[in-house]
Amino acid sequence: MKFEKLDIEGAYLITIEPYRDDRGTFERRFCKKEFENAGIDFNVCQSNLSKNLKKGTIRGMHWQREPYAEGKLVSCQKGAIYDVIADVRRNSPTYLKWFGVELTEDNDKMLYIPPYVAHGYQTLVDNTTVFYQVSEFFYPDYYGVMRYNDPAFGIEWKDIKPLIINEKDKNYEDWKV
Fold first, then answer.
1. pLDDT tens, position by position, 71-126
2. Whole-model pTM?
3. CB atoms < 10 A from the CB of 102, how many?
């Protein structure tokens, strides 16, 4: 695995280095020792799979608040997504910055999202499947959310119509800077 530090404090774009032969490929998707060598303390507590029927679906922007911070490791298993993170940590040097990257079933990329950083994605094709590994159990009372198009962050999503967003995610108030 190759770990590339991003402009969001603690976030990494990870490139998988598959072993290829005439049978196909073999990929290591997680190795605690390799993560530790890159300076990432990540323990998997849950694995989640999200199946998205339509192109243009946006899920996010979510994180988990104290004391149940969760890191995430996200990959696209089928189809393609535009994966986005935004730094909502008020004491962070990268507060209010965002980063977006395409993750596809073929590009051998994963995104590591540190605790207290908002995460969401937009599907770029129909029938897209996203796989998450998370470092904490889910606690609904500690669920953090920011609106996907909040002006404080200025995230530039892909221009796909129609956008499919659930009512909860598209109706949050503006972020209080």
1. 999 999 999 999 999 999 999 999 999 999 999 999 999 999 999 999 999 999 99
2. 0.93
3. 15
For residue 94, being part of any structural domain is answered with: yes
Integer angstrom CA distances of residue 30 from 5, 44, 139: 17, 9, 24
Quickly count: other Cβ atoms within 10 Å of residue 84's Cβ: 24
CB-count burial class (<10 Å; 0-12, 13-18, 19+) for 154? exposed
- The span from the CA of 87 to the CA of 113, in Å, is 10
DSSP annotation of 164: B
Q: Domain containing 91 — which CATH number?
A: 2.60.120.10
Residue 55 lies in a domain: yes
Which of these, 167, 50, 176, 16, lies nearest to 120 by C-alpha position?
50
Residues in the chain: 177
Residue 175 is encoded by which pair of tokens?
């972020």
Establish if 176 belongs to a structural domain.
no
Q: Which residues share a beta bridge with 175?
A: none
The number of domains in the chain is 1
Q: Are 36 and 30 in contact (CB under 8 A)?
A: no
Catalytic residue list:
62, 132
> Is residue 177 situated within a structural domain?
no
Query: Rounded to whole angstroms, how far apart are CA atoms 136 and 72?
Result: 9
Q: Which residues span the domain enclosing 137?
A: 2-170
